[in-house]
Write the C-alpha cells for this entry.
Amino acid sequence: RFAVSVGYWKDPYIQYFVRQAKERKAPEINRGELGWERGHLTCYYARVHGVSHLIKAFLERTECNCQIVNLGAGMDTLFWRLKDENLLPRKYFEVDFPMIVARKIHNIKSKPPLSKPIMESHSGDSLLIDSHSLDSSRYSIVGADLRFPSDLEEKLKKHSLDMHLPTLLVAECVLVYMTPQQSANLLKWAASAFPVAMVINYEQVNMRDRFGQIMIENLQRRQCNLAGVELCASLHSQRERLLVSGWENARAIDMMKVYSSLPQADVKRIEALEFLDEKELFEQLMQHYCICWASKDSSNL
Ligand SMILES: C[S@@+](CC[C@H](N)C(=O)[O-])C[C@H]1O[C@@H](n2cnc3c(N)ncnc32)[C@H](O)[C@@H]1O
C-alpha cells in the first residue's frame, strides 16, 4: 500500500484490503534499512509490471475467453484492476486458506468499491456467499489448502471451473511456502488437469549464495519458514521444476532483467521517487527474485 501511496503504480483497491503502513523513519535514522526498503519497493514495481505483462499477453491470446486461477491470492486486487481495464476473463478464481478468504470476503462485503464491480459483472441467479467462499458469474473465491490438489479441484468445480477452457494459474510468493513435494503435486495437477494452460510463478531465486542465506535468516527471525527454498537455487532449478511437472516452454528471468526491460520513462520516474543510492544492494535483491512461466498447449493457442 505504501508503494501505491507514494506513486510507484496505481492501485485504487489496495487501500480497502491493507491498512495504512506506519510513518516511515527519517532517512538519517537508518539508511541501511531504508535502502533495503527502497530496493523492495522497486522490486515490487518490476514484479507488478512483469506479471501484468504476462497476464495481459495470455488474455490477449485467448481474447479473454479463458479463466484465471490465482493460487494463494491473499489480498491481491488483480480482479478489480482487470475489470477497470475491461480485461476480465470469463471467470476469475482466487484460492487461499479459509481464514484469509474469510477476511477478504468480509472486506468485499463491507466496502462498496470492492463489492460493486463483482455485482456489476454478475448475471443470472443470486450470488452465492458464505464466510469461506463467494461465487459470482465472473469472480469466485474459495477457501482451500493448495497442498491437496484434488480437494482444491473439487471446490473449484463447485464454483464452475471449466477444465476445458484455457486457464492461467498465477502463484506469487506462494509455492516457496510449500515443500518441494507439495508444490510439485500442485504443479503436476495443474499441468494434467487443463489441456491448454499457462502458469506464472514469482518467488525467490539464487538462494544458495551468501545474500540468499541472509534473506532466509531474516525471514526465519520473523517466524517465516520457506519450506520450498531448495527449489529456489537458480533460474535453472526454477525452470526444471516446471518441466518435470509436465509443463512445456518453461522460462525464468530474474528481476534485474525485468527491471532492465521496463520502459525508460518508468525507470526515470521510479528512480526520481526514491533515488536508489544503494545500487549494489538493490541489484543483489533484484537478482534474488524471479518470474517463471510455462505453458501447455494441446491446441497451439
Ligand atoms: C506471501 S502471501 C502472497 C499473497 C499474494 N499472492 C501476493 O502476491 O500478494 C502468500 C499467500 O499464500 C497463501 N498460502 C500459502 N500456503 C498456502 C496453502 N497451502 N494453501 C492455501 N494458501 C496458501 C497464504 O495464506 C498467503 O495469503
